[in-house]
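Risk mitigation, structural track. In case the binding assays with PM9 fail to produce interpretable data, a predicted complex structure has been prepared as a fallback.
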Amino acid sequence: MSGNPIAPPWRVKMVEPIRMISRSRREQLLEEAGYNVFALAAEDVYIDLLTDSGTSAMSDYQWAGLLQGDESYAGSKNYYNLQQTVQQLLGFEYIVPTHQGRGAENILFQHLIEPGQYVVGNMHFDTTKAHIEVRKGKAVDLVADVTHDSQAHHPFKGNFDLEALDAFLADKGPEQVAFVLVTVTCNSAGGQPVSMANIRSVQEIARGHNVPVYMDAARFAENAWFIQQREEGYSDKSIPDIVREMFSYVEGCTMSAKKDALVNIGGFVALRDKDLYREVSRLAVVYEGFPTYGGLAGRDMEAMARGLKEIVDPDYLAYRIGQVAYLGKKLRDAGIPIVEPVGGHAVFVDGQKFLPHIPKEQFPAQALCIELYREAGVRGVEVGGVLAGRDPETGENIYPRLDLLRLTIPRRVYTNEHMDVVAQGLIAIGERRDQVRGVAFVDEPPILRHFTARFRLV
Ligand code: PM9
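Fallback model:
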């Protein structure tokens, strides 16, 4: 990337006001929310970096598509538009729309996983792991070792450990392994990309063991952009060509369209094989809806088809990934410890390094998350000890190696001036970090505790 500032490749023609409420009001709301930012009303948040999922701003072209929704129960023209887009862009013949990514996981995994089988991934996302486990499958992460070092610079920290994959598949064999799942970019590893060479090798290794490969495609275009920028032999290839090659190595994919299809709701399963499509579309009827709408309105499918075309625009991607890098650089230059290199959709701040006086038992990243709202009205999300929960066997807290605050940037929503506010907030906290207090549970739900837990300041 050049040193020149990148301006957004769009202009604004509609705005949604946001407001900063007073510090005393923010303090009061935090107390009422039990120091859990999930319990805050969105209206009371100035800059919302909770997630990049379903939070994108749609283009005028997408909004225009909403008015062309064909709401027929079966065979909506918007379904065919979506099908054609997926065929051209991703190279899959068959598509089943779903209400969102986890709907796609549900219907595909129900068909593919037998109880007791393994599903091997670079690093599975939470809902993916949950759907594997609902099927009584076992989710295994085989991401490369370098990923666990937050300061190690590697261009593709979402890569599989190929030796470990080969050894695992050789040991278990195709009866015990349902499939391999490549998540691009790898959200749980910090939005880190997977190289084309790695995807290709995963396919070769898996084919050698007779195990199919699928892709969790939620952030496929961001991954393609990293391949174009960082991988030898790809700088002259177009993003659509790179996308097409990425998907050529897999049998199908699950997609949360709430990320790289630039819509607020939606998802799909895309497949090569007709028989598999038949089975999965039958499950769609039970869990999602008729296979030509899958729980979506016709207008949603039209917006999705149009978003898929827009996401592969290189100017869009340069600004998008550039904005994430911009926030990362601001924080790095200010000496704030972040996970390196910065990934595609979020900047992760190392809670333990930033607040070394708070022991892990008092959840430093959660403390930082609370403090950032108090300081600047910014909502991030903890991805650390609170999220990790307890060991189901021992009941002890699991303390992951990295206790992080995720600052997730919605697509086409905020400007770099908003990023400046976020950085300033963290810098201000850094200057008085000794005063930041850890937290303890007041109310701890037994499962997925991070969403609804209540805390007190220690
Ligand atoms: N990811 C995220 O914030 C949504 C919130 S879940 C607490 O990062 C991948 C790689 C994801 C993902 C969602 C899903 C599920 C699948 N794979 O949210 O069901 O990052 O559309 O997709 C979230 P849905």
